């Protein structure tokens, strides 16, 4: 007998009221081995752990609160049981009637004995599916195989694959037949709802380039970026087959969003954070975000105005940022006012995202050491480069692999001068390695690393330095010790 995933799926069960007559059915199935599910109605021949949910028990046992559903005919109960047992991998049940009781022997549990693919493209088998071989032969197992196959093909450049699955309830074998269809290359998406935005505005969030090989996950990443930015509350890509046309559907939502959060950390207790973001301030997607961080040790106000000024270069923006930062340490307190005006550019390759940022900054800081007040003003040039793998970004909350690296460079001087006082370099990174190529992922090794240094003739304890130019190395009763360098590696 050959089964498809649709045939194994749940069927609509119809109860014919005119078949009602007096009978008793006994069944079992709980977390621990039992015989009875419906008292004096249905029973298993031997104790087992087959479970039925409340709705299924109503179909088997009836409902005393409804007169027309009080008694379930044995024939109807047997029909329902066959279907419910098949959904759990029991394909050869035996039924018997005695003293108005229905007794069922579910028979052996059929498990998946083999999984074979036919017509798969080169490289398809580089990733294996797990938790299928040896599992019960059910609709869930077939759906898992179908989802894995379809997703794998769509991430290999085939936008419209044809996948057919056959399973045998005799041998337990699953056979998958694949027709990949022609490979698809990304085309310029058609935006169905403009929301008053310039046609190319949404392209800044794309995790793909036109004419790149199709990769379904990068569409999900593109939608996530747009939703996380707040410019829309929903972004969905629709690819119509058999002649693929990429269409993007948008839902705008409110232009102003207030977020409130609270928490604790090992160094700050309690923590309260407030964020107000206003989006779609122009047809290019200009936005303004103001955030406030409050704790016993740190208070920080940050405002960022992101202005996209080039219509045909949606990945270029100016992001003027104003920050007020107050930090209370054991031996002194520190307050800093900073204004940064960076020019930012974002780019994507087939598997990575780049961020380049460069701009001037003006800083005013106050360090209070007991009774003395030490104000300092300085000018700096701030550069930032970030490289992040698409896989790392997409599965940030469900790690699967990929890496991210950050490089920050700051050149500090008292005024706009060709003679800087210090060069600050910071490099940090995180890397996730999937140890075995299986789906879903099983073993992930992750580690973080970093290196920071300040090149200057000034001593690390000098109060003129901003926090970004010195690093804490050890906490003592008198406060923190400071250093020109910092290095770490953590698994």
Mean pLDDT: 84
User: How would you name the oligomeric state of the polypeptide chains in this document?
Assistant: single chain
Largest sheet: 14 strands, antiparallel
Structural class: mainly beta
What is the number of E strands? 29
Provide the β-strand percentage band. 35-45%
Radius of gyration: 32 Å
Shape: elongated
Instruction: Give the termini separation.
Output: 51 Å
Distinct helical segment count: 6
Low-confidence stretches: 1-31, 476-482
Can you offer a commentary on this structure?
It is a single chain. By secondary structure, the protein is mainly β. Among the domains are: 104 residues, no CATH class; 66 residues, Ubiquitin-like (UB roll) (Roll); 172 residues, no CATH class. The protein contains 6 helices and 29 strands. The strands form 6 sheets. Strands 13, 14, 15, 16, 17, 18, 19, 20, 21, 22, 23, 24, 26 and 29 form a 14-stranded antiparallel β-sheet that branches. A 4-stranded mixed β-sheet has the order 1-8-9-6. It has a 4-stranded mixed β-sheet with strand order 2-3-5-4, covered by helices on one side. Helix 2 packs antiparallel against helix 3. The two termini are 51 Å apart. The N terminus is likely disordered.
What's a quick, concise take on this entry?
With 491 residues, the protein is mainly β. Helix content is 12%, strand content 43%. It has helices at residues 5-8, 54-61, 74-87, 139-154, 216-229, 390-394, and strands spanning 2-3, 34-38, 42-48, 94-98, 101-105, 114-118, 128-129, 162-168, 173-179, 190-191, 234-240, 245-251, 256-263, 271-278, 287-295, 298-306, 316-318, 321-328, 333-340, 343-348, 352-369, 372-389, 402-413, 422-434, 438-439, 444-456, 471-476, 479-483, 485-490.
